[in-house]
Fold this sequence. Notes:
Blueprint lengths: L24 H17 L10 E6 L2 E6 L2 E3 L3 E3 L3 H6 L11 E4 L25 H11 L4 E6 L5 H6 L23 H19 L7 E6 L8 H4 L8 H15 L2 H8 L20 H5 L7 H31 L6 E4 L11 H5 L17 H4 L16 E5 L17 H6 L3 E6 L17 H18 L2 E5 L9 H17 L10 E5 L12 H12 L9 E5 L13 E4 L7 H10 L5 E5 L13 H8 L3 E4 L3 E7 L15 E8 L2 E4 L3 E7 L7 E8 L18 E6 L6 H10 L11 E4 L3 E6 L3 E15 L5 E13 L3 E9 L2
Parallel strand pairs: 4-5, 4-11, 5-6, 6-7, 7-8, 8-9, 9-10, 10-11, 12-13, 12-14, 14-15, 15-22
Antiparallel strand pairs: 1-2, 2-3, 16-19, 17-18, 17-20, 20-21, 21-22, 23-24, 24-27, 25-26, 25-27
Helix pairs in contact: 5-10, 14-15
Amino acid sequence: MMRMKTQLWVRFNPIPCYRERTMKLSSIITTCLAIVQLCTVLPSTAGMLPDVQVRPFNGRPTVFINGKPNALPGYSTFGRSAWDNDLPLFYRHDMGVYFIAPPILHWDGGPVIRDDEKLTGNQISLDEMASRIIEGDPDAWIIVRFTPRAPYSWYEANPEQYFMSDDFTVDHEHAPSLASDLFTDEMLKVTEEVVRYVESRSWAERVIGYADFHVTEGTLSALHQGYLFDHNPLMLQKFRDFLRNKYGNDEKLREAYGDPSLSFASVMIPCDRLRGTVPDVSQLNYWQDAADNRILRDYLELQRDLWHARFIQSNAAMKRGTTRNVLLIHDCLKQTMQGWSNFGFFKYGQIREDFAWRLAYPETMSGSGHMNVVPLFDTPGFSGLITPHDYQARGIGGVYEPEGIVDSIILRGKYFMSEMDTRTFLINGNEIARARDLKELGSITWRNLATSFTRGFNSYWMEFGGGWLRDDGIQNLIDRQAEVINESIEWEHETVPGIAMIIDDTCALETNGDGSFLNEAVMTEWKTGMSRCGVPRNIYLFDDLTLDNFPKHRVYYFPNLFRVTNEKLAVLREKVFRDGVVVVWGPGSGISDGETIGVGSAEELTGFTFELVGVNSPRRFIVTNADHPVTAGLPPDTIVGSPLSYGPLLFPTSGTILADSWSKGGHRYNGMVINEYGRGAAGSPGAIASRGMGDYASVFVTAVPLPANLWRNLARYAGAHVYAETNDVLLADKTVVALHSAYSGPRIITLPGSFRVYDVITGALFSDKIDRIAFDLDAPETRIFRLETAE
């Protein structure tokens, strides 16, 4: 799609001198000169700037600029060297948008961005960035990204505003306390002034949005080093105020905490039990009665309230900086990353003891206040999210998953952008998932774009400091990829019925706060078998189930639905327990009623009866019943689980036994079971129409993650269409299907009907009418196909 150049029109009414016949000529001249001067002093006004809105187009949220939809292939880099050597390479690609970022943000009370700034050798001003883009690619748009992190001088002057660990030490990546009103006020001023400054520039006519990357992308950096509780006196006061508001009087506080001596004036922020000795932490059960973790629950809820307020205020500050419709996007809300050990990953390999992967570590999302996030999506002016993608499995044979909760955002009509900072063979050293050659790079980036096409979001190229993409072969690859992104805006997007992972982002309230289990049950699950079973999958928040436009799926996986409520049960009965689907329950499903850990709530949720063993333990299960459709054809060594120790253990005592458990004591417990309700699972696509409300199958597993073959059988039993049988990464929506693999050989993608098929990468017609795509894959490689209804 061609982009229209912006034209600037100045319109004014002539001086009505016919009504003022006595007006002197000098007055007329003076008035006209004043108008000219006004246009000179204010080179851009809201009426001349682009109107930018996110609206649905071909089934996906799309950015409309002055009423026209835009695909917005994008590029972002940093530093003068990169702008000298790398940015010009992209001008020929018909890019839709470039990112620019202020090199310095001042927190000293003067202008936040200064025209007379003395920049260092590698820094480049916003004005110069914008002028280079406009000169080199005049049809492209600009998004201004910024991080309102206080400079070190502000930290030195205000150390009392920062996170304090158990020993009242201040550092931890200079994490500002969420309780600091002073930091928040200053941060909001900086945020608003960044937008206000840009809106005043002559080049603002090319600006379509602002991206707030928050401090450490919305997470609390102290958590990255394993610190959860902030002992800053400011936080203590906020905590006491929170408790007073929640419980009302000392008597109710004492009753809730089981401490007759407690009062609002005496309560203290605790030390983190996860930082205790190995024997003590080993005995600390993962799932907790409310009486045992009340103070953790209250503290996490306070962090939620503080973070929500800061997010809403930040978006409002951006909104105050402009008087027009414009993109306001944020890097935060990474619910997909529940269980993330940040420094366990990013600092891994450094010879420092405190950067090893910890045996127990505080869960990053909940500790940062990122719980109950759905109401934040309705923040006035909020346009969507912009995040990196998961770093751990981004290389060949891996998956491309944005850190943010992309499917929830798309479902709510918001825009999502993902940083595709793919490291290449041009970088020296053992960089993150570095592509070793052009072929690997092509397979990785085409897989990434295929994920974007099939999930309804936008990916853009990003590099830190340049040089990663400075190669003719790479630029030729990007040229075709940018062309395909522009083509894709005309493709209809619709989610197909597959596997839905449903996340409860309040689950940490029922636990000891450790992130280890969620790393297994959420992050590892979507990185491994679930993405390779030949059936497309999506990740949603539980609250998404209540939406009228929630797409139908055939398998629903609940990795962390620990707490049972009547409201949740009502949603499940209406939206999930029906139509012959298969529901898969993770190991702790229903283990809490909000107060007590036990079997009663688990039985009410899942329909199985249970025995509870009240300790932590590693657990695995081995498939021992190969006669059921869910397990038929699985190899004899189908053993599921890991060395991770967590508990209490829930062992099902009813249902059809599919696997035996390996766990503490070696007793004969059931490891995986299935129950049918109503007319049960569909069994095949043709039987779905015969199933209705109350017809489904329920599967309980005592260990995770599940292998691809098992996920495929579960999906097939639910009546899902299986696209591939080869355990490769499979991506699909209504009009696009793709397969990525690190293994060569013949492949077959079975289609859910007959279609005219185009090869997306080459642009060539693959077949006029076929119902299966057969091809030889030369690994590592990604093949992408576009489907049209055959005549």
